Amino acid sequence: MFENEKEKMMKVAIVTYESKGSYPDINAEDENIVLGNILEELGLDFKLEIWSDPQVDWAQFTHLLIKSPWDYFDKYPEFLVWCTYVKGLGVKVFNDMDTILWNSDKKYLLDVQKKGFHIVPTFFIDKGQASDLDGCFQQFHTDYLVIKPTVSGGAKNTLKLEKNNWRAHKPAIDSFLESEDFMVQPFIEEIASVGEFSYLFFNGRFSHAVLKSAKSGEFRVQHYFGGQVQQVNPSQDQLDYLQKIVNEFADNTLYARVDGVWIEGVFYLMELELIEPYLFLFTSQSAKKNYREAVKKKLGVF
Q: Which residue has the higher pLDDT, 259 or 229?
């Protein structure tokens, strides 16, 4: 039962995207169902709404739960307009719009680095510039680079380049740069040999962690590229360091996913996922419980 009439009037939207088969992934639907079940158990009035649907009256909702707007990077200018509009409505949003706007472009990694945290070394190329990556190979002391848009997801337009023949890809890269900013990083061998770690935090507290491993011969860890996922248990020292990142940049978030690699005991952040991360709720017995309690607390339902 709700404690007061105000809670009875609560109306929640689970914000998702219009699936057109572009992303070979059923996980958005699965996690939307999990979140919907949580809201149903709590007795809340809720609907799944597509963020880009112009027919949605966002002002009718008291709370928006940003769950799976997985095509935002394909419609980025439109997404920025939508975020600004929703922010102006004064509706409660989790994660909040300032966080989402900051996190939508991976140039936020520079802010993380400025605070003294390790990131995978990164060089940014502004839209309209020509690609000349010889200096990056030299700067990063590597024979392999990974290049991708700063606004992206799902390994979209992500290329692994070899020093000796990267210019074969230069026309494609220059074509990409005509429309968006890109980022260049050294290929991290540990991603192929060990994998990429994801640490999930709800309401700023650690919940669970997974290791995403690429299949043999692949550098992308997403499951639709053949990647595997397994639960891992971080050490207390590891958690203490990761908690500092969350405290600094994601303290007031419903959910945060810290992605990165450990190299000789040092954690290098790859991404801090605060917009639409997959939460790997199926990997831990306590994950769904932790998520449910976090949602309850954010919505003020007890």
A: 259
CATH 3.30.470.20 domain span(s) along the chain: 108-118+190-281
SS3 283: helix
Least confidently predicted of 61-65, 267-271, 281-285, 293-297: 281-285
Contact 23, 72 (CB under 8 A): no
Question: Which tens digits make up the pLDDT trace of 42-94?
Answer: 999 999 999 999 999 999 999 999 999 999 999 999 999 999 999 999 999 99
Closest CA to 258 of 248, 246, 247, 266: 246
- Find the DSSP H helices in the chain: 5-8, 27-41, 76-89, 97-103, 108-114, 134-139, 170-177, 189-193, 236-249, 287-299
pLDDT confidence tier of residue 26, bands split at 50, 70 and 90: very low
Nearest CA-CA partner of 203 in 253, 259, 274, 275: 253
Q: Are strands 63-66 and 11-16 parallel, antiparallel or unpaired?
A: parallel
Tokens of 264: 């000789």
Q: What are phi and psi of 36, to 5 degrees?
A: -60, -40
Instruction: Enter the pTM of the model.
Output: 0.90
Q: Which CATH number fits domain 5-104+295-299: 3.40.50.20, 3.40.50.1360, 3.10.50.40, 3.30.2420.10?
A: 3.40.50.20
